[in-house]
Amino acid sequence: MKVGLLGHGVVGSGVRTIIDEGATWEVRELEVTAILVKDETEMTDPRTTLNADDIINDPEIQVVAECMGGLEPAHTYAKRALQAGKHVVTSNKKMLATFCGDLFDTARENGVTIHYEASCGGGIPWMASLDRTRRVDDIVSFRGIFNGTTNYILERMFHENRDFADMLKEAQKLGYAEQDPTDDIDGYDVRYKVALSCAKAFDAIVDAEKILTYGIRNITAQDLQFCRDSGYACKLMGKGEWHTDYISAMVIPVFLHADDVFANIPLNFNAIESNSKTLGSAAFVGQGAGSLPTAHAVVQNVIDIWKDQDSEINPKTRVPIDNQFHQGIYYIRTVKDALLASITDQRVGDHAILTKKISVLEAENAIRTLADQDLFIAEVAE
Ligand SMILES: NC(=O)c1ccc[n+]([C@@H]2O[C@H](COP(=O)([O-])OP(=O)(O)OC[C@H]3O[C@@H](n4cnc5c(N)ncnc54)[C@H](OP(=O)(O)O)[C@@H]3O)[C@@H](O)[C@H]2O)c1
Q: What is the pTM of this model?
């Protein structure tokens, strides 16, 4: 099966390497025949081209692997590939979470599919596991540490009493964090992954922007001190929960009990768990990023397509996000804590409170009116 690669960076070059090396008989059935690069200096392989049409219009190419990143032109190229009757495999969570309704419809209209294992949890077989579980059972909920960068920062801050700004700089130096870390530390990267997990787990297209999203940008040593002293660990979690006509979904730092299986997920690892009626809880831990682990997931999807072209059915039903019934206890630190009296259960340090058990939307409404740029919120496990 001939594969065209869009993008030859960290993930794309990993896909090319795995397929060229052909370690197994299944991989040896695949061949990368064209690679889109951006400028002439990158044309180091005879298969490279500067023209996406060389891939999209090539009748021999059956699968296009989009590993370019960004919204455009990745979205347009993916759409045109689907319209040309090619299956698309993508590692690009931001693009797919933003345009999944349009792309899933285009795929269906053209009798092809989009596969996106690598977009969520990197090399972890998360999507494949959801597919498999759903053959027998309905997924009720999922939760996970979907972002290795923030897990690395939180782990080091927690155990070494380090400052957020220092740890971010170190993560950038190690290549774990981007120079513009916004998507990671403000939770948007996890938001895209939660949206795509909803697609797979619940067969639902959701509006990613409606997923309530809090990050770790404002976390301080004081917050982690409270967390540690109270017997918790702090993780940035993405969560989704199926209800018959809506989905509750959010990204939020959580103070987890120290004996929670996710409390000790180390450094830049990811960990994701699904819950379904008969299987119960099933969790995966592994490398959520990196050239070869992520490329492994892309190649797995290409093999899925080669083995059974109809294995993937992309969702078509739009389901609203609604968090009004998600109740919890929240740790909130803000200099304007005096204005939170109506939802406060107890004070737990300088300008920090624990709320009564309230809906997350009640917490959101209360903190939105404060307009405090430095506020930190975490859900506290009960
Ligand atoms: N890296 C990971 O571990 C990882 C893990 C999971 C998912 N992902 C996702 O996978 C995607 C790719 O990530 P990456 O880390 O491989 O990024 P990357 O190293 O920056 O690679 C992307 C490549 O695509 C090229 N490119 C961008 N626009 C192009 C265009 N219009 N025409 C031709 N080439 C173009 C880039 O060229 P220039 O550099 O010249 O712009 C770059 O070589 C992203 O969506 C990312 O979120 C990455």
A: 0.97
Catalytic residue among 193, 200, 235, 239: 193
Side chain identity at residue 321, one-letter code: I
Q: What is the pLDDT of residues 164-176, one digit of tens each?
A: 999 999 999 988 8
Domain range summary for the chain, segments of one domain joined by +: 2-123+291-316, 129-282+320-380
Q: Quick one: CATH architecture of 129-282+320-380? A: 2-Layer Sandwich (3.30)
**Ligand 1 pocket, residue 37 CB under 6 Å:** yes
Best residue among 5, 8, 11, 191 to mutate for probing ligand 1's pocket (most ligand atoms within 8 Å of CB) is: 11
Q: What is the spatial distance between Cα 215 and Cα 166, in angstroms, rounded to a whole number?
A: 17
- 295 within 8 A of 11, measured Cβ to Cβ: yes
Q: Is 2 a catalytic residue?
A: no
- The minimum-distance atom of ligand 1 relative to the CA of 52 is 32
Quick: pLDDT tens for 97-144.
Answer: 999 999 999 999 999 999 999 999 988 999 999 999 999 999 999 999
Q: Is 68 in the pocket of ligand 1 (CB under 6 A)?
A: yes
**Domain 2-123+291-316 belongs to what topology?**
Rossmann fold (3.40.50)
**CA neighbor of 214 nearest in space, from 287, 164, 150:** 150
